Amino acid sequence: MPLSIAVCVKRVPDTAAEKKLDDGDKTLDRDSVESILNPVDEMAVEEALKLKEANEGEVTIVCAGPEGAAQQAIRKALSMGADKGVHLKDDSLHGSDAQGIAYALAQVLKKGEYDLILCGAESTDARTNLVPPAIAEHLNLPNLNFVKNVETSDGKVTAHRETDKGHDVLESSTPAVLGVVWGANEPRYPSFKGIMAAKQKPLETLSAADAEIDASKVGLDGSKTEVLEFGARSTERQKNVVDNKEGDAHVKLADFLQQQKFI
What we know:
This protein is an alpha/beta fold and 263 residues long. It has helices at residues 39-55, 68-80, 98-109, 131-139, 192-198, 219-222, 249-259; strands spanning 3-9, 11-13, 35-37, 57-64, 84-88, 116-120, 143-147, 149-153, 156-163, 166-173, 176-180, 203-206. It has a single domain (3-222), classed as 3-Layer(aba) Sandwich (Rossmann fold), CATH 3.40.50.620. Helix 2 packs across helix 5 (192-198) and helix 3 packs across helix 4. The radius of gyration is 21 Å and the shape is globular. The chain has a seven-stranded parallel β-sheet with strand order 7-11-6-1-4-5-12, with helices on both faces. Strands 8-9-10 form a three-stranded antiparallel β-sheet. A two-stranded antiparallel sheet has the order 2-3. The longest helix has 17 residues, at 39-55.
């Protein structure tokens, strides 16, 4: 049975780049470094494409962000093999926290009918793991998070998840929202043909008004979190040597870790 799949992606600063915050509004300065498609979202796209190949259907890429997000995130996913994109672009979204972006994405997703909504479980610039479950909450859908492999059959989705205690197998009815973890797969490289074809694929641009987004729930003013202050990373290094002359190094090490509140 053909599947309609949406994948929510994010434009993030290059993982290897030196990041910094804007002195004015204390948000991440995304224009000073090269931006890329969030690597964990690439794995969600790959998982969606594998499902499409196994079941047929269509993969839609959904992204919220400024103009660059279309070229650096959506078009990259389209060149991998996704069918079309939806770009939510509005200045009112600037400074939105994870909850605000999840709400905005949910508003966009309400305009389509999807069997599955996939996201990277986290982004490399924030690592909150909040967006997939928050989207599910806004849409009143089941959420299967931290998954490494996804299968579908007879209107159900089965997700495999590795945990500290072993391996979980989760099952849910569809539609459902899934968060795909780092290492779930090896994303395919876009071919030259795929890159050229991506330029011709449909890309719809929506404003906050188009998506019926309540402005009071997004942006800096609508965010439930706030950066109060920040400073440069310290370059100082401290060294503590633990000797084992009396055979009690393990005790000293445990005491140190407890004092530093690591355990």
